[in-house]
Amino acid sequence: MHIPKKYRGFFIPKAIENDLLGFDMIRAYHHRLCGNVLEDCKHNWLQWTNRFEGVDRFTKWAITHGIHDAILNQIAYRSKDVKKFYSFKDDYKFYLEFLYPYNSETITWEQIDKIQDNSYILVSVPNTRGCIPENWNDLLKQCERTNSKIFFDGAYYGTSFETIDVNHSAIDCVAFSLSKNFCLNNIRSGVIFGNDIAWTLTIAMQREYYDYFSVDIANKILPKYEPLYVTKHAKKIQKEMYGDKACEIWFMIEDKDYMGIKTPRLINNEIKDKVQEAINVG
Asked: Do 55 and 46 form a contact (C-beta atoms < 8 A)?
């Protein structure tokens, strides 16, 4: 596998990069014929995400082209019976684009009580503020009061030491990918777990036209590299270099407020060499 030069400025751990450079796409294509490939993938994702309690309690799952794919399909599916969609102003900016075709609103965490009956909320956990949202439990309570559901975007899973229980009736589904933790955003290897998932997500596996390559990469990377593979080294370096400004997510530090919204600064490139050295030492 060739990794374009323009993406090499991001921090991909050297061992993972070497594994990808040695990835055999032809083998992956033929490997799809093995009957246990998808079951292996499901098992590997469940093992890798088990720092978040309750992921294994969902009854359905699907391979996705990153979390974008999961969100787009699930909100289209839910739009048939949901009255309104919500996202938060300090969260992932693409949510605005995803929800543009629907009746939707962007709110602050101080406006949780604006969430109406039978709504659907997109939330990153941890989020772009650099940690698990401080008002997370308040959101769950509001969802209980309004019979609303949450799409739990776990893109930043493993980039902090934080844990959370996703076994809650308000959580419609949870999604994960390799994009943020190992900076494999161009691999588009993701997964979604839920009890009622859009058929447009599950049918690809039923008809065997899912992405063989991202599945094979997940089966190669997930069992070999734990979710804290980078974080357990990077957090110490982040704290030493930035002290109290360090966010829970290892590559973010507190920077400034923009129009009342906390906007952390990314420090991947500033500390990546030190992090790689620490990984090498073990």
From this structure: yes
